[in-house]
Amino acid sequence: MALTEQDFKNLPETGIDPDNPGKYQALLDDLQGNILKGHGRDYTVDLFVQWKLDCIPVAKEWIKNFTKGYVTSAQLQADESRRYRDQKVSGSVFANFYLTRIGYETLGFEAFQIPKNQPFTMGMQYEAIRTYLGDPKVTDWEVGYQQKIHSLIAIADDNQDSLLKFANQITQELSTIATVLHQENGFILRNKDGQVIEHFGFVDGVSQPLFIKRDIVKAQASDRDFSKWDPRAPLDLVLVKDPNGQTEDSYGSYLVYRKLEQNVKAFREDQQALAQALKIQDELAGAYVVGRFPDGTPVTISDKPMHPPNPPNNFNYDQDITATKCPFHAHIRKTNPRGDSVRNSNVNIEEERGHRIARRAVSYGEKDLTNAPTEGSGLLFLCFQADIENQFNFMQGQWSNANRFVKVGVGPDPLIGSPQGTQHWPTEWSKSSTQDYSFKLWVKMKGGEYFFAPSISSLKNLP
User: pTM to 2 decimals?
Assistant: First the structure.
């Protein structure tokens, strides 16, 4: 029996259990991995592909064979994770295959067979979208992203050498039927405590919507309960019906991909200047910018890092409604207001929670944490959602960029808000006095695109 609308709106209390999937079996078998849960590999290679128009029949055969041989389902991902936990047996190369709207058209799909989300249809280069997101002109993007991208082939592994060899093999196989426009090599960056971080040095990916039982149970063990913030999410937050799926439970997801370059040296200097202006500790200034200390401690909970084994996530801003501890403009408060918009913008909590995204970012560039690069390093930002316009685009355009969210004069998100402006910063933690400071934007968007993650059955049965 096919899953119902209610199955997608109401996740089981403990989430989906891939070890005992029950009615979700067909969904997990046909859904690409990395959507409901990150793939967990240390290294990634992303190949941006443009199919040659005179080779489309051969290209389709290649896609079918690649899917059958390598594309990882959500169920296989879970099975390999369990084998690694139980037997320390490493999984196979993890692979995904994504299409743009132009990619669908190039492969011969009819209009009714192409996913319909409006930003996906238009593409990230579309002028109205580019302006709304505050992105640079397309001519300022890296050359590979300025082209008409048809597909993204994403592969990941724990062995970098093996992964790069496999990427070279794919590139050679594609040489007669496609052009590889661009290649991105990513990796997981960790601090000395083994925590996943980004180049500015802050723990990354702490607060994610959770769908899988193991993740939910782990979160409950860390936070005891979900009394202040429930990370669980319904499937309809990230999944939509695949119009070309071959089963009743064939689903896919929209992927936003953005390359974000980070000027680490300038960020740290600006952070120090902010600390001096406010006459506070440097680490507290950084926490005001991000909303957490580098170790993940939320600044709304403490004015000092607590060095927890697992960064707290069971918190909201009910005890900080005037933002004397965590500024309204802090990155994590802008992008996940945890009830702020309910108090200040007259929306209900489910509407606010409906803007969440499933974030799957990795780093690129410099791996030595003692260095402070000014260019060539940053984040390969990936996120999945059911509605780009209502999720990533809304979050960037209506929350991060907005001077008026969550209140008039709050200022933009100092980490990713564009264009930048002046924010009001607490001069003393938990006190009402503030000082204006214009934190500069040290993250530069270098290019990106919108993709759809088709069901596996649709890729194996291209028309």
Answer: 0.97
Q: Closest by alpha carbon to 74, among 21, 120, 8? A: 21
Q: Report pLDDT for 132.
A: 97
- Identify the pLDDT of residue 346: 81
d(CA 116, CA 152): 19
What is the C-alpha separation between 412 and 134, in angstroms, rounded?
12
Give the largest CA-CA distance in the chain.
67
How far is 138 from 328, CA to CA, in rounded Å? 31
Q: Give dist(CA 194, CA 190) in Å, integer.
A: 5
Give the pLDDT of residue 169. 98
Residues in CB range of 390: below 8 A, 6 or more apart: 354, 355
CA distances from 237 to 78, 247, 352, 361, 383 (A): 20, 21, 12, 18, 12
pLDDT lower than 50: segments of the chain: none
In the prediction, which pLDDT does 221 show?
86
